[in-house]
Amino acid sequence: MSNPRHQGTSRRLRPCHGGLRHDLLVLAVPVPVPVPVPVLILVLVLVLALADSRVRAQDAGALPKYPPVRLGEPSIGYQRSPTVTMVMYESPDGMLFQSALCDKHRRTVTVRSRYFVGGNRRTLVEDVDEFDVRYWPTELSVVAENTLCIGGKSEDGHTVIERWTFAAPAHEVSSPNDGSTPVHSVTTGALSHVEVLYDDAVPGRDIVNVILPVLGGKSPGLLIQFADSADLWKLDTSDQPLALVATPHPATATVANVPLVPLLSQRMRARMVREHPADGYCYFLLPSGGGFDFDDSDESNESPTIVLLRDADENGVIETFEQLTAAQFEAKGYGSSATFTSAWTY
Q: How far is Cα 28 from Cα 10, in angstroms, rounded to an integer?
């Protein structure tokens, strides 16, 4: 038999010694054992931690799902035009230049030096060097005199950012013994140093779309935009940590506590860095080449199309982020070079 009040186990004792005429039922009844307070606290902490982890998992699920890191050559949509030349040196007299361009498909960087004889733009001598690149270069930017930063994609799927430093070009004049016209020649500056700034395969940081120098900081820095996420990062090239600066994704902006700039999601075709007498260093990301040649009837005058990052005190830290319409861009005078004390275009 069993006791309905207790779900224990039972065993029946058989008669023994001849004097025991009836059965005895012995029940194994669970006896409550006091639980120490520290154990209860530990259990409560574990339960709360589990609940917090579930909330974090839900938050993480709201973040953008970046595609897997790409392997192989990036498509033609991810490249700087192989015909766009970046000037990285100009002599004080404006007669000697050194410039560079990259070709993604051929995996090359071409450096060209030119000297304009007598200041005549139609009479020049030049020297050209071509350098092989170990990855597919998707972006090239001049970050200092005779210094390039190149971003690209390697065969193993890694995104690579390197800094290349060149010597200045050399101009020579030789005078023939017969007293004829002097002969001018120019030699491209040698590649003196290559430094790897970034080499990793991380979703959300796949393929370099924009590289801009950060001006005014205590140490050299770069603004980097990656193509798959459109997030904007700052890379401190002295110790090479990456810091998220802005994002077009609301969830990322909330979790990382960075400014939300939806226009970053559009493909920026032009980049300008300007020094303004009142606004400090201004970084412009624009959807088209010139950035300020807009048709008055164009809808771009009514909708924001231009991203402005401003470092008013010129300390290398961007304080404000704006999204401007073409009309606002013009009204602030940003379309005129006379507005700025210094200007760089990338």
A: 6
Q: CA 155, CA 71: separation in Å to the nearest integer?
A: 6
DSSP H helices, the chain, are 37-62, 250-256, 326-331
Q: Tokens representing 281?
A: 């260093």
Determine the Cα–Cα distance for residues 232 and 235; give it in Å rounded to an integer: 10
The residue count of the chain comes to 346
Whether the predicted pLDDT of 55 surpasses 70 = no
Helix (H), strand (E) at residue 345? strand 342-345
Contact between 246 and 232 under an 8 Å Cβ cutoff? The reply is: yes
pTM equals 0.76
Question: Which residues have a Cβ under 8 Å from the Cβ of 170 and sit 6 or more positions away?
Answer: 186, 187, 189
The SS3 call for residue 339 is helix
Residues 233, 250, 307: CA angle, nearest 5 degrees? 55
Reported as a single tens digit per residue, the pLDDT across 140-180 is: 999 999 999 999 999 999 999 999 999 999 999 998 777 77
**Model pLDDT for residues 242-294, shown as the tens digit of each residue:** 999 999 999 999 999 999 999 999 887 788 899 999 999 999 998 865 444 44
DSSP state of 181: -
Contact of 150 with 103, CB cutoff 8 Å: no
Q: Which residues pair with 159 in a beta bridge?
A: 153, 200
Indicate the domain borders of the chain. 9-62, 64-265, 266-346
Separation of alpha carbons 161 and 176, rounded Å:
46
How far apart, in whole angstroms, are the C-alpha atoms of residue 229 and residue 67?
9
Of the candidates 299, 301, 304, the residue with the CA atom closest to the CA atom of residue 285: 304
